[in-house]
Amino acid sequence: MSEMGIAILLLCVLATGGIVLWDRRKVRKTMDKIETMLEAAMDGSFSEATFDESRLSALETKLAHYLSAAELSSQKAAQEKDKIKSLIADISHQTKTPIANLLLYSELLMEEKLPDSARANVEALYSQSEKLRFFIDALVKLSRLENGIISLSPQCAALQPLLQGVAEQYAAKAAEKGLSLQLQDTDAFAVFDARWTAEALANIVDNAVKYTAQGAITICAVSYEMFARIDISDTGEGIPESEQAKIFARFYRSKAVRDKEGVGIGLYLSRQIISGEGGYIKVVSVPGQGSTFSVFLPKSS
User: Fold this and answer.
1) What is the pTM of this model?
2) Is 200 exposed, middle or buried (0-12, 13-18, 19+ CB in 10 A)?
3) How far apart are CA 68 and CA 241, in angstroms?
4) What is the pLDDT of residues 24-58, one digit of tens each?
């Protein structure tokens, strides 16, 4: 190859190298600009800075439009949340007094000397009023939880006081049915919101008492490396395998227990609470031999 050819080849190589370097620099500069735009978008300080016909300017415009739409959507969501919060507060407030009055007057009537037929009607009125009170309370709690009006605040704490409180709450109800309610002592710790976890466990224990005709209900806890497990076991009717996945659905009630009191919201609420704390619930059951509900709570947040 002649010297002229070599020189031309070298110039071509240098020119190609220069073009590549220039292109890489341009790409790097564009990527840096996009990164700066995204960072500004995340901290809320983004604004359009380039007004020309370039692709970067078009990207800035689209990003500005997207952020504007997202902000508007966020504002609408916040407004809807406020409306729901007000509606829930109104429902809770407006129904509390009438239901309380129904219960009060029913109790006063039951203290009077009434014919047997009238007494049965008054007792039914009291029972239905109590059921309505429970239903409204459960719906209000569930709505607040699902709409983020109530936020869970899990803290690392001992499980024994939590379980002790739930056991004491249902000791009298279990004794009325001739059931043994047993709590095994534990030194296990977990991360949970004490108030709402007590609500979740109480719903499970309430079902255990409700659907157990004879025998015992046992509450215990076991500590693992990452989770603490709370077992609530009963010797009740049991749950068919085909229904075990359905019982956590909102308002689900098995045909076998529809003659019992309840609205089918307790286990759904329990699962929502435990899931919100980073835990989960499992059930093992054999019809005619009882059920064990296992609540797994994390040991670290």
Assistant:
1) 0.61
2) buried
3) 50
4) 776 677 666 767 766 766 666 656 665 555 666 66
